[in-house]
Amino acid sequence: MKAVIFVLATLLAVCVPTFGKQCSVTPVNIPKQWITMQQSCRSSMRRQIQMEVAASLQYLAMGAHFSRDGINRPGFAKLFFDAGSEEREHAMKLIDYLLMRGELDTNVTSLIQIRPPERKSWESGVDALEHALKMESEVTKSIRSVIIACESDPKFNDYHLVDYLTGEFLEEQYKGQRDLAGKASTLKKMLDRHSSLGEFIFDKKLLGMDI
């Protein structure tokens, strides 16, 4: 059995520590000709990943705010916790893309930098929805700036990445913005008719309840 492990380790170039000794891994030199992403495009992608992570943390703060006992809006909490998961998934997709393009051979850990959320409290559900809409608009604007950076040079136009961002991300962003704008508009109308119960009823509708 030990012989098989050593053979497999040798074939796969995996270091196997023995007799309490730590093994060292020698970096393997791989040709770089297949890595074609330009510096401006690469930097823009890294900044976009940071923005997606920051948006995810902000949504987590929003979900936690509406989960507080003194506020108790489970519908809003679920909405924002789900949004936080989506933003984290977006960051993971972009990291996977950079991996596919061979762009994560160095400074991998610098992709994830945790910063405190911009806000930690909101006056109302409308305030939170409008803040979310503003944040999504900024994320969309940032994605468009990545696209511009990646297609600005005709000689090095990164068609594949531009197509990926346009089809995979922008459409979802625009649909999400429209959904948030619709929710904010609906809530405002409900508050006009039911000033004391409007937000409570809307919160229940976010959970799928018919009141």
UniProtKB/TrEMBL annotation:
GO terms assigned for molecular function: ferric iron binding; ferrous iron binding; ferroxidase activity
Family: Belongs to the ferritin family.
Record InterPro entries: Ferritin, Ferritin-like_diiron, Ferritin_DPS_dom
Ferritin-like diiron domain sequence ranges: 35-191
Keyword DNA repair assigned: no
Gene source species: Parnassius apollo (Apollo butterfly)
GO biological process, one term: iron ion transport
Cellular-component GO terms for this entry: extracellular region; Golgi apparatus
EC number(s) from the headed UniProt entry: 1.16.3.1
Quaternary organization: Oligomer of 12 light (L) chains and 12 heavy (H) chains; L and H chains are disulfide-linked. The functional molecule forms a roughly spherical shell with a diameter of 12 nm and contains a central cavity into which the insoluble ferric iron core is deposited.
UniProt protein name: Ferritin
Pfam families per UniProt: Ferritin
Protein residues bound to Fe cation: 52, 87, 90, 136, 173
Enzyme class label: oxidoreductase
Summary of the function given for this chain in its UniProt record: Stores iron in a soluble, non-toxic, readily available form. Important for iron homeostasis. Iron is taken up in the ferrous form and deposited as ferric hydroxides after oxidation. Ferritin is composed of a heavy (H) chain which is responsible for the oxidation and uptake of ferrous iron, and a light (L) chain which facilitates the nucleation of the ferrihydrite iron core.
Catalytic activity: 4 Fe(2+) + O2 + 4 H(+) = 4 Fe(3+) + 2 H2O
Keywords: Disulfide bond, Golgi apparatus, Iron, Iron storage, Metal-binding, Oxidoreductase, Secreted, Signal
Major subcellular site: Golgi
Compartment(s) where it occurs, according to its Swiss-Prot or TrEMBL record: Golgi apparatus; Secreted
Signal peptide: 1-20
